[in-house]
Design a protein that fits this description.
The structure holds two protein chains of two kinds. By secondary structure, chain A is an all-alpha fold. Chain A has a single domain (22-236), classed as MetI-like (MetI-like fold). Chain A has nine helices and no strands. Chain A has helices spanning 2-14, 23-57, 60-75, 78-99, 109-134, 138-146, 151-181, 193-204, 207-236. In chain A, helix 7 (151-181) packs antiparallel against helix 9 (207-236). Chain A is flat, with a radius of gyration of 22 Å. By secondary structure, chain B is α/β, with parallel strands linked by helices. Chain B has a domain at 4-102 and 219-269: 3-Layer(aba) Sandwich (Rossmann fold). Chain B has a six-stranded mixed beta sheet, sandwiched between helices. A four-stranded antiparallel beta sheet of chain B has the order 2-1-4-5, covered by helices on one side. The relative contact order of chain B is 0.16. At the A-B interface, helix 6 and helix 7 of A face helix 2, strand 6 and helix 3 of B. Chain B: Residues 1-11 have a biased composition (Basic and acidic residues). Chain B: GO terms for molecular function: ABC-type amino acid transporter activity; ATP binding; ATP hydrolysis activity. Chain B: Residues 26-267 form the ABC transporter domain.
Chain lengths: 245, 271
């Protein structure tokens, strides 16, 4: 009994926010993970919107380029892409800087992480959004055109809000994947949640404690996200009758 | 915005036209339209002056909806000329509009009503009505709302302003769609089989609204299967068959004394 109480106490000690506890490190790691995931998701959404409209309405050259983008990015494992983009891009930026007589720079892990995961997210988002746009009833777009609505306004006020109801389940998936893909950035030494957890576990040998704690944090994040997306979806589906089996 | 009528061409040299005629709202000249190798319209012309109600009848596949959709360039003509309020729509060689701003301005002056209503499902009925006036035409919001509410009252939907389209019956949706088109204060209305998607018991309420518009002297082109209604409201009826105008004239002559065998047969078949 006392042994169990002692174990519980030492677990709490290990997870305390202030050193020598590692809880603060874990939370900072979580904050970094969320920041990268949010940045990558936002970038991916932007790339995906451009990609989807480009694939649907662009010229043949643009469509081919976008096909290459979505095919290649979705074919290569994300870990490999991260290694390629992180090291290759850092290296080529520095080569260029040196060639022009500047100093080498250290690219921030945050910016690199957002860029890499954003490019990956963009490829998947392109397909999610393309499908969603295609499922917008064509008559509603035609009605807007028939009333003389310019293309930009039509996309913003009619096509995008209508397709959102179809896109949100897919986008929610992408967001959850983004939150977990941030763990891949541990391989380039970025201090996100998984990397922080490994460090804490390695230093204290309390593997079970820290990986369970990290797992709970990821779970909490995804529960909150699911709740948020459910709210967004309710809002996007306003005006549509509920479909129940 | 320049008055499109400034660019109006003289029509006095056209044969058979009385000199002080009402202004032309819509003129279609030699309209041809092909989908691939299928020629749907083979040279169709029509003129609607201010206050005219032109009804277009014909069997399915006769090209009547395509003709209507060419007037506001939802379909691109293969050949021919479209003149709205005296202003010729500039076309590229493939029939697409050459000047985006011109075609947008012309579309704003033509209120289109579709068979499937096509209300925006993510906006309430009131929002549907004020969308284009507020966001495209720059009408102050309060003014647009006042106009929209008056129009909804007129089509009998005042209490549905805050409802979403999916919760209205087909007849109510179509009346709302007519109000939405009217809210732009168009020069003319285009009706594309406005009652064809409705249950029979809902047709009457929509026709009543259209009849009301005809009575106040609205210019309109009406593609319809409702022969009795066409005869009642139209000032001119066009019978289209296989992409050509088989017969046209005042409703009483066309329905009461059809000349061509095809029209006689068509009128017999629709009842």
């Amino acid at each position: 009994m006392t042994a169990l109480a002692g174990a519980a106490a030492s677990t709490l000690d290990l997870l305390q926010l202030a050193p020598p506890g590692w809880g603060g490190n874990l939370l900072r790691g979580l904050a970094n993970s969320v920041l990268i995931a949010a940045g990558a998701f936002g970038l991916g959404l932007g790339l995906g919107t451009l990609g989807a409209f480009g694939k649907l309405y662009g010229g043949p050259v643009l469509r081919d380029l976008l096909a290459v983008y979505t095919t290649v990015v979705r074919a290569v494992p994300e870990l490999v892409l991260i290694l390629i983009l992180y090291y290759a891009v850092t290296d080529s930026v520095n080569q260029i800087l040196l060639a022009f007589g500047y100093e080498r720079i250290q690219i921030s892990g945050l910016a690199a992480g957002i860029a890499v995961l954003g490019v990956v997210q963009g490829a998947y988002a392109t397909e999610v959004l393309r499908g969603a746009i295609q499922s917008v009833p064509v008559g509603q777009i035609e009605a807007a055109r028939a009333m003389g609505m310019p293309p930009g306004l039509l996309a913003r006020r009619v096509t995008l809000p209508l397709m959102l109801a179809n896109a949100l389940p897919g986008l929610a998936n992408l967001w959850l994947i983004a939150t977990k893909d941030t763990a891949l950035l541990a391989v380039v030494g970025f201090a996100e949640l998984t990397q922080q957890t490994r460090q804490a576990a390695g230093a204290t040998k309390a593997y079970f404690t820290f990986f369970m704690a990290a797992g709970l944090l990821y779970l909490l994040l995804s529960i909150l996200s699911t709740w948020g997306f459910a709210r967004l979806e309710r809002r996007a589906r306003r005006g549509l009758p509920e479909v129940r089996g | 915005m320049p008055d499109p009528r400034d660019a109006r061409e003289t029509v006095t040299d056209m044969p058979g036209q009385a000199a002080p005629a009402r202004d032309e709202a819509i003129r279609v000249e030699g309209l041809r339209k092909s989908f691939g190798r299928l020629e749907v319209l083979k040279g169709v012309s029509l003129t609607a002056r201010e206050g005219d109600v032109v009804a277009v009848i014909g069997g399915s596949g006769s090209g009547k909806s395509t003709m209507l959709r060419c007037i506001n360039f939802l379909e691109h003509p293969s050949a021919g000329r479209i003149v709205i309020g005296g202003e010729t729509v500039a076309m590229k060689s493939d029939g697409s509009p050459a000047d985006r701003r011109q075609i947008e301005r012309i579309r704003q002056s033509l209120g289109m009503v579709f068979q499937q209503f096509n209300l925006w499902t993510h906006r309430t009925i009131l929002e549907n009505l004020i969308e284009v006036p507020v966001h495209v035409l720059g009408v102050p919001r309060a003014e647009a709302v006042a106009r929209a509410e008056a129009l909804l009252a007129r089509v009998g939907l005042a209490e549905k302003a805050q409802s979403y389209p999916a919760f209205l019956s087909g007849g109510q949706q179509q009346r709302a769609a007519i109000a939405r088109a009217l809210c732009m204060a168009p020069r003319a209305m285009l009706f594309d089989e406005p009652t064809s998607a409705l249950d029979p018991e809902l047709v009457g309420e929509v026709l009543a609204v259209i009849r009301d518009l005809a009575a106040e002297g609205r210019t309109m082109v009406l593609v319809t299967h409702e022969m009795k209604f066409a005869r009642e409201v139209a000032s001119h009826v066009i019978y289209l068959h296989n992409g050509v105008i088989e017969e046209e004239g005042p409703p009483d002559a066309l329905f009461g004394n059809p000349q061509s065998d095809r029209l006689k047969q068509f009128l017999k078949s629709v009842g």
